[in-house]
UniProtKB/TrEMBL annotation:
Binding-site list for Fe cation: H58, H60, H103, E105
Gene Ontology MF, one: metal ion binding
Cofactor(s) the record lists: Fe cation
Domain of life from the UniProt record: Bacteria
Keyword Metal-binding: yes
Classification via InterPro entries: Pirin, Pirin_N_dom, Quercetinase_C, RmlC-like_jellyroll, RmlC_Cupin_sf
Chain ranges of the Quercetin 2,3-dioxygenase C-terminal cupin domain: 154-236
The record's free-text note on cofactor binding: Binds 1 Fe cation per subunit.
Keywords from the UniProt entry: Iron, Metal-binding
Record protein name field: Pirin-related protein
Pfam families membership: Pirin (PF02678), Pirin_C_2 (PF17954)
Family designation: Belongs to the pirin family.
Amino acid sequence: MKTIVHKSDTRGFSNHGWLQANHSFSFANWYNEDRVHFGALRVLNDDVIAPKMGFGTHPHKNMEIITIPLEGELKHRDSMGNKWESVLPGEVQIMSAGTGVEHSEINGSTDSHLSLFQIWVIPNKENVDPRYDQKAFEASERRNSLQVLVSSIGDDLEGPLKIYQDALISRVDLDENHEITYQLKSNNHGVYVMLINGRVNVLDTELNTRDAIGISELTEFKVNAEETSSLLFIEIPMQF
């Protein structure tokens, strides 16, 4: 078993005025040689964006990009023909950049901040045709039970959005004192667990809001909620 604990206050932080960004892994001007990636997970950014502000048109190539709004309204536009699509809390957006795509992401509100997670996963297939998708997921279906949001384009799971990587991205909302068991897909997989809010115990490690733990070389583990908690699981190949 291998674990790595990332406390919330050890993340990289960038204050751009309109953007407050926390980086779990090296990104932009923040570099930590010990935190470049976790397996095929390259980026986990925890962003807060001011009203009417956002990221202007910029390119991506050969990356699987997943965006999970937590509060507010995200607006998305891209070179694939999507024109200011709204993505709301409870929804998830995926984009396979493939051979190349340009997009813009802005806060769709004039008076409220936008809070979101942006995840980049290194793909297992390069130079694919760019693709975009989004879907709403019912919060009631993740109460004390794992809800799979994203899985591999090659698997037979029905319901999740699909990306070009043998990955699973899931959420769960746990009641106080509730315990779940997480089972990994294979010995080659690891899972990065981000505590969105609350307090939990994982492998005798206490995590508080926005703390994270990376777990590998283990088939299963338990998560116990010491108070009402919400978690994000990003399971990916460690060798890719």
